[in-house]
Every structure is written in structure tokens, then in C-alpha cells.
Design goal:
Blueprint: H1 3-16, H2 19-25, H3 30-44, E1 49-51, E2 56-58, H4 60-83, E3 91-97, H5 99-116, E4 120-126, E5 140-145, E6 153-160, E7 162-166, H6 168-172, E8 187-191, E9 198-203, E10 206-211, E11 213-218, H7 221-229, E12 234-238, H8 239-248, E13 252-253, E14 259-260, E15 263-269, H9 277-289
Parallel strand pairs: 3-4, 3-5, 8-11, 8-12
Antiparallel strand pairs: 1-2, 5-15, 6-15, 7-12, 7-13, 9-10, 9-14
Length: about 300
């Protein structure tokens, strides 16, 4: 069997701890994953994995071999790229981002890149929480933050502005809001990853921090968007996600003169070492694409 593929399967099983999960991620059957692992163990003449009915874990030998196998895969990929004189980008890029940014902004950007490079495949992993890129075998992550994870290399590609919004229905049946402190008497929608119960708002050079009551919280922005659209309360939302609903009248800005803190949109990756031309080109594409106002 192909030793290069067997090595990729071994590295993925080491990350997932599951033959079934690796089979799903690599689009192959579970028996095929088992055969590739057996090929690796026969090739190296040592047992690499402990297998039980509940989990799979590395043996001492497997732990020792893992980094060497990863380096070998990196070198094999580099040699393959050197041998490819066609100049065409190819291969699979695994990219992680939040659900809200993924479906509203990233997919159009990715589609444009793939149309220009038909031999490239992209696998998008949607999570609002920060993903361990190495453990999850992620090549790139697009994250919105005030500061990026210091263990990763971050390239700023755009600014994420936020607004305070509510549905006309909610605003019509509740007391008027003319200043930030009025929010304390309203039902708010809390985003667990950003200012869940204390909202920081700025007008000119004045900042106010308001403690709000959140009966509904979520770790994902699109869920809170739907709650706001259905009149459940007031939410802080990224402008890229709600602009169309403000224009369409389904949502209204609350305290339009007061602005939540801006965040930066980053492309994050773990290392520049052995980065494939395809990944490098995708970073450049995203940087150029989002340098223009898109929302």
C-alpha cells in the first residue's frame, strides 16, 4: 500500500484518537484506515497505537515516531511541489472559521479562489471556539479577535465593526432607549465569546460600560441573530452579518451614535515552515479580497 497515504492516516489517527473519525475526515472506509495503520506498523516493525473498544492512543514508540513522520510528510510535500513545474495550484486546504463569518463572508471569497484554481480543494471547519490548528490538522483559521493567539502567526485582513440591534417588533413593545444605561431595563442577548453581560460602548472619546440582563445566551452569532429577528431582545452583532437586515428593515440599530469595540479579522496559521504554495496563495487571496469593503 501507499506509504505516503499510510503516514497521513497515522498522523490523523494520532490527532483524532479514532479510526472512525479519521475515516470520515479522509473520506475512506474504517477497514481501509485499519489497513493503512497496519502497513505503517509493518513498515516500521513496531506497534504504533494502543487499540481498545473505547479509544485509540499512541504507544511510546508511536509517540516517538509521530514527529518524525510529520517531518517526512512535510518533506515529501515539498519535493512534490518542486517536481510540479505546471505552476498550477493543487491539493486540499483545511480552513477553520466561525459559522457566521463562514456562511456570510468566507464562502464567496473561497469560491472566487477555487474558480481561479480548479485543482484546489477546500475543507471548511465551522466553530466559534478557537481550534487547535495542529491537533485538528487545520492549515488556516480565520478568527475575529482583539488580539490573536500568541502561539499562532496572525495576518490582519480586515476590521470587524459591530452594532447594537433589535427588531422593530421588540422596540415597539418596550420602553425607549436613548442612552446606554437604558439597556439595563431591557432583555439582551448574550454572546458567550464577546462581552456576554457587560457591554462596552463608545461615542466620540467617551466610553460607557453597561451591565445587561441576558436571559438568552449562545456561543454562536447566527443563533443570536435569529433570536433578535424574532423579537427576543437586543443583541450586539457584527455589521457584516446584520447589514442586509438593517437595510431590509427587519432590524433597527439601537443607540446608533454608540459603537461597540472594533475587532480585527485575522488569518492564523501555526508555522511558515513547509507552507505549501496553495496555502500561501490562499492567504494572499483572502488578504486582497477583504482589503476592500465587503459589507
Amino acid at each position: 500500500m501507499d506509504r505516503l497515504t499510510a503516514a497521513k492516516v497515522f498522523v490523523d489517527v494520532a490527532a483524532t484518537g479514532s479510526f472512525t473519525a479519521t475515516a470520515d475526515r479522509l473520506d475512506m472506509s474504517r477497514p481501509m484506515v485499519t489497513r493503512y495503520i497496519e502497513t505503517m506498523e509493518a513498515w516500521l516493525n513496531t506497534r504504533l497505537l494502543h487499540r481498545t473498544t473505547r479509544k485509540v492512543s499512541l504507544t511510546t514508540a508511536g509517540q516517538t515516531c509521530l514527529e518524525e513522520v510529520k517531518q517526512w510528510l512535510d518533506q515529501a510535500e515539498s519535493l512534490s511541489e518542486l517536481a510540479d513545474n505546471s505552476g498550477e495550484l493543487s491539493g486540499t486546504v483545511r480552513l477553520a472559521t466561525s459559522m457566521s463569518f463562514g456562511y456570510s463572508q468566507l464562502v464567496p471569497a473561497i469560491q472566487e479562489f477555487m474558480a481561479e484554481n480548479p485543482n484546489v480543494k477546500i475543507d471548511i471547519d465551522l466553530h466559534d471556539s478557537v481550534t487547535d490548528l495542529t491537533e485538528s490538522q487545520i492549515d488556516l483559521a480565520v478568527r475575529i479577535a482583539s488580539t490573536p493567539d500568541p502561539s499562532l502567526i496572525g495576518k490582519p485582513i480586515s476590521i470587524c465593526e459591530s452594532v447594537v440591534v433589535a427588531s422593530p417588533e421588540y422596540l415597539n413593545r418596550n420602553s425607549a432607549i436613548s442612552k446606554p444605561s437604558d439597556l439595563t431595563g431591557h432583555t439582551c442577548l448574550g454572546y458567550k465569546n464577546f462581552q456576554q453581560h457587560i457591554w462596552h460602548l463608545t461615542k466620540d472619546n467617551t466610553q460607557q460600560s453597561v451591565e445587561v440582563k441576558c436571559n438568552l445566551t449562545a456561543n454562536e452569532a447566527t443563533a443570536l441573530l435569529q433570536a433578535a429577528l424574532h423579537g427576543a431582545g437586543i443583541a450586539i452583532q457584527p455589521f457584516y452579518l446584520v447589514n442586509q437586515y438593517i437595510k431590509g428593515g427587519q432590524l433597527q440599530q439601537v443607540l446608533p451614535d454608540w459603537k461597540p469595540n472594533d475587532l480585527t479579522i485575522y488569518v492564523l496559521y501555526s508555522s511558515r515552515k513547509y507552507m505549501s504554495p496553495t496555502v500561501r496563495a490562499l492567504i494572499d487571496h483572502l488578504s486582497g479580497y477583504f482589503s476592500e469593503a465587503r459589507w
